[in-house]
Amino acid sequence: MKPSPLDYIGGAAGLRAQQIWPLTWFTLVISIAVCVIIAIVLWVAVRRARPQDNLLEMRAIPLERGGNGVRWISIGLIISAVPLAATLVWTMVTLAAIAGPPAHPGLILDVTARQWWWEVQYSSPHPPEDFTTANEIHIPVGVPVLVRLHGIDVIHSFWVPKLSGKTDVIPGQTNLSWMQADRPGRYLGQCSEYCGLQHAHMQFEVVAESQEDFDNWQSLQRQQAAPPVTREQTQGLALIEYRCGLCHSVRGTEAGAISAPDLTHIMSRRTLAAGTLINNAGNLVGWIQNPQNIKPGNLMPNQYLSAQQLSDALAYLESLK
Amino acid sequence: MRQLDLRTPLVGIDSVDHEARLLRLWETSPGLKGFLTSVDHKQIGIRYIITAFIFLALGGIEALVMRLQLAGPNLSLLTPAQYNQLFSTHGMTMIFLYAAPVLSGFSNYLWPLLLGSRDMAFPRLNALGYWIYLASGLFLYAGFLTGNGPNDGWFNYVPYASRDYNPGLNEDFYALGMVFLGISTTVGAANFVVTAFRTRAPGMSINRLPILVWGTLTASVANLIVVPAVSLAFFLLWMDRQFGTQFFNPAGGGQPLLWQHLFWIFGHPWVYAIVLPAMGMVSDGLPVFCRRPLVGYSLVALSTVATMILGFGVWVHHMFATGLPGLGLSLFSGASIVITLPSAVAVFAWLATIRLGRPVITTAFLFFSSMILLFVIGGVSGFMTASVPVDWQLTDTYFVVAHLHYVLIGINLFPVVGATYFWFPKMTGRMLNERLGRWNFWTMFLGFNLAFLPMHLTGLLGMPRRVYTYNDYAGWHALNLITSIGAFVLAIGVLLFFVNVLKSLRAGAVAGKNPWDAPTLEWAVSSPPPPYNFAVIPTVASRHPLWEEHLDQGGATSSIDRGMLLDEGKETIATSGLDAVPDMVLEMPEDSFAPVLLTLGLAVLFVGLLLKAWLTVGIGGAIAALAMLAWFWPRSELREREPARG
User: Fold this and answer.
1) Residue A240 lies inside a defined structural domain of this protein
2) What average pLDDT does the segment B161-184 reach?
3) Do A241 and A138 share a structural domain?
4) Terminal CA-CA length for chain A
5) pLDDT tier at B646 (50, 70, 90 boundaries)?
6) Among B387, B463, B482, which would you mutate to test the A interface (most chain A Cβ atoms within 10 Å of its Cβ)?
7) How far separated are the first and last CA of chain B, in Å rounded?
């Protein structure tokens, strides 16, 4: 069996999830032990039972009324209380350690969960450097990252099992989550509060990388879209401004709407449609023409572009690295 | 107010004349009229049970369709919209239309028999409770069958349930249907509470109540407290959707979390309400097959109540990820961990009862005893989710789906099926087939565990709930296939159960009064019991009136054959709340069209509200008002005009 990218008992990759991980295993082991012990006691007790084919003979079995049964209950309760108390204490200690946001976050992100994708905003002390991306969150390794969660439609939940437990994204309030990756890698995130038709396909990736790689990525993302070079790209840009620009934006062009993912550096992202497809030319074309077949009910309508329009659009989009 | 009836009832023994007189007084007329007017708790109880089992079958079919869709990655048997309606309807059906009503059915049927009474305290209210349950169930399913089923889960979170994101009638059907059903739950609960405290046989003091009565009583008190919260929530939602109020809309100053608080303040106690009576079935049924009284009766009774009291303080464990402050989370986390203890009392009591008794293997025993293990599995997984940090990982994954199915199937369905094997002879006069019963048990037990034990792992590997499909890279394929196979095996087991019931209704062995040599009062009357239950009102001197000869419980003996005759009218006896000292003769109402008419009026009214057809609302309201007028019209035979004296 392949390891699931959302598995959270196989280990953690970040400080916050790491503190939860042993507690999860502790409660899991206790739980399994309790089930095994009870199963054995039950089996020992039931093994003495006689099968009764002739039910009318039941009254021939004498009634029993002795035995100090209450002692079973008291001993059972005392034994149960020990792991319960231990769990209670461990829970409170862990909660105190990981609940609150870090006092000195190295990075603050604003994540807005939307039906059915994730908008990620990186702010800078110099506002022109602010930028917005989608479904892919880059963070530097070893730095506590504060994530401010904003809801604008229905409730979603932000979850990166290897880095951090769930925090709901609720319209009307700003919830805080945080994470700190130990080692570079791509960690899958998933919406984990039911949010409608495409709840299943509402994923994102957290890309943890060295500070240097992160800085490079960030400076690339801060740039506006490169101007078109070829004739095809120019036509593609015109098409995108006129059609896609009703919902999407490409910074540095006329396409400036904000109700769908920012496309300025779309080709720098690994997936399309919030983790639904791998981002490559073929999938991109398929997605543009027929998103309703790939992710039924999502908010992007099918486009019905001509072959020429499609190849123009693709030529331009592929330049958005 | 009804005046005290200070007659001293005659005491005597049963006779043919006496029984004939009682039969004339209590018998429901045959045919359609009797069907529509009966207030006999036994008929009402059986209707509840049959209706609930039909909903169980519907909910099961919905589950199987979903399991086909989830058997492999990226399947497209269902569209996302269909899947969402299916999982929402499945939850609604199983939780609201099966799990609670089936227990109401058993309690309705059994309570007066267990308590030594001739009916529930409010027989017409009892009939009303059933009719409204049926009508609201049909109302909710009318939505589903017209493509307007609920599509936001049984928990129905806003804003997804609001009109902006859910413009169809789906959520209006659900919201109004739930308010409608809430009436049934509320009147039923009120009836149980009064019945428990007022219509017990003389001598059946509170420490002699069967645990089933404790369970249903506790659940009913809880329902009276918490059902208003959810009815209010659904009403506010409907107002938000149709009249532009802003209770839950953040843009208008409302609060999405208000919904979650109102819902879970109801929702979590409700979980206990649909398991405590079932635990009571096990506490009463299991000892019969262990040939000994239940170990630790008082502790089990008290832990039943304690569970519910603590159960009022754990609702936030459904909301650990909503960003509430840490101090509050700690409190609810602690309460959720501590609530394990009263539940554990019952487990140890059952284990000790088997170990210290002389167990006899019957199908009922197999269901009851295996339930102990399922209960523990469902309990420990609940304990894991009680720890806030752990819950931040577990919540909204399949781990929780596995957990809640161990709770609902393990602690509700298994005891209910066991209880059917146990009490079917009393209800029908015939035994269920034991051989088919073994097949029934093992198929259900193996199928259930095959489906849901691996599902814990599916959740630990991160599979989120309520997704209509999953990717092939996720690594959940094999586990989901196993679960789907297990679900079908479980379904075959349930099918065998239905087959057994239908077969045994005609061809089962004749049961006699007391086939299991059980100790409680229902087994003192014929199977099925006569319409008046007890020809004479028994007097109870112990917890096990029919085992007194063998158990020697301190000398006093219960009197079954000799007691108050009460044959001058449709009468039973009222007793005091704690010690069950007789203090009044109750005049019981005749069969009546009023409950079914009132239900009809309310159904028309709710359909009118759904369509915002105000004329229809008015007509429904008028029918309901007339039905209530007929219902409350004072009648001298109920001594509703006696002068205030004496």
Assistant:
1) yes
2) 97
3) no
4) 35
5) very low
6) B387
7) 14
User: How far apart, in whole angstroms, are the C-alpha atoms of residue B48 and residue B111?
Assistant: 14
Say which of B165, B290, B292 has its CB closest to residue A196: B165
- CB-based contact A91 B470, cutoff 8 Å: no
Asked whether the bond before B589 is cis by omega within 30 degrees of 0, the reply is no
| CA of residue B611 relative to chain centroid, distance | 31
Across the interface, whether the CB atoms of A38 and B295 are under 8 A apart is answered: no
| Domain boundary assignment for chain B | 596-638
Residues A156 and A218 in one domain: yes
Q: What is the CA radius of gyration of chain B?
A: 25
Whether residue A236 is found in the same domain as residue A215: no
| B529 pLDDT above the threshold of 70 | yes
At residue A256, the 3 state secondary structure works out as strand
DSSP category for residue A302? P
Pair B277, B212: CB distance under 8 Å: yes
Query: Cα separation of B391 and B386, whole Å?
Result: 7
Chain B interface includes A95 (CB < 8 A): yes
Residue B584, both tokens: 């009044």
**For residue A251, is it within any domain?**
yes
Q: Is pLDDT of B542 > 80?
A: yes
| A96–chain B Cβ distance below 8 A for any pair | yes
- Identify the CATH number of the domain in which residue A236 sits: 2.60.40.420
pLDDT tens digits, one per residue of A291-317: 999 999 999 999 999 999 999 999 999
Minimal Cβ distance to B387: which of A58, A61, A87: A87
Residue B4, pLDDT score: 53
Q: Can you spell out the DSSP letters for A182-250?
A: SS-EEEEEE--S--STTGGG-EEEEEEE-HHHHHHHHHHHHSPPPPP-SHHHHHHHHHHHHTGGGT-B-
Averaged pLDDT of chain A: 94
Structural domain count of chain A = 3
pLDDT tens profile B212-269: 999 999 999 999 999 999 999 999 999 999 999 999 999 999 999 999 999 999 999 9
Asked, for residue A119, whether it belongs to a domain, the answer is yes
Q: Flag whether residue A89 sits within 8 Å of chain B, measured between CB atoms.
A: no
Give me the domain span that covers residue A216: 107-222
pLDDT, residue B1, reads 39
A40: closest CA of chain B, how far (Å): 10
Burial class (CB in 10 A: 0-12, 13-18, 19+), A96: exposed
Last residue of a domain, one of A187, A203, A222: A222
Beta carbons of B160 and A194 less than 8 Å apart? yes
Residues A215 and A239 in one domain: no
Q: B586 forms bridges with which residues in the sheet?
A: B572
Query: What's the whole-model pTM score?
Result: 0.96
User: Could you tell me if residue A290 is inside a domain?
Assistant: yes
Q: Check if A299 contacts B (Cβ < 8 Å).
A: no
Amino acid at B631: W
Helices (H), B199-275: 211-243, 256-273
For chain B, give the percent of residues with pLDDT over 70: 97
Phi and psi (nearest 5°) for A186? -105, 125
* Spatial distance between the Cα atoms of B109 and B103, rounded to a whole number of angstroms: 10
Alpha carbon distance B541, B346 (integer Å): 25
Q: What is the pLDDT of residues B452-490, one digit of tens each?
A: 999 999 999 999 999 999 998 888 999 999 999 999 999
Integer Cα distance of B459 and B476 in angstroms: 9
CA–CA distance, B458 with B377 (Å, rounded to integer)? 16
Nearest to A237 by CA among A220, A251, A219: A251
Domain end: A222, A257, A292, which one? Answer: A222
In sign, the C-alpha dihedral spanning B529, B533, B534, B537 is positive
d(C-alpha A259, C-alpha B157), whole Å: 23
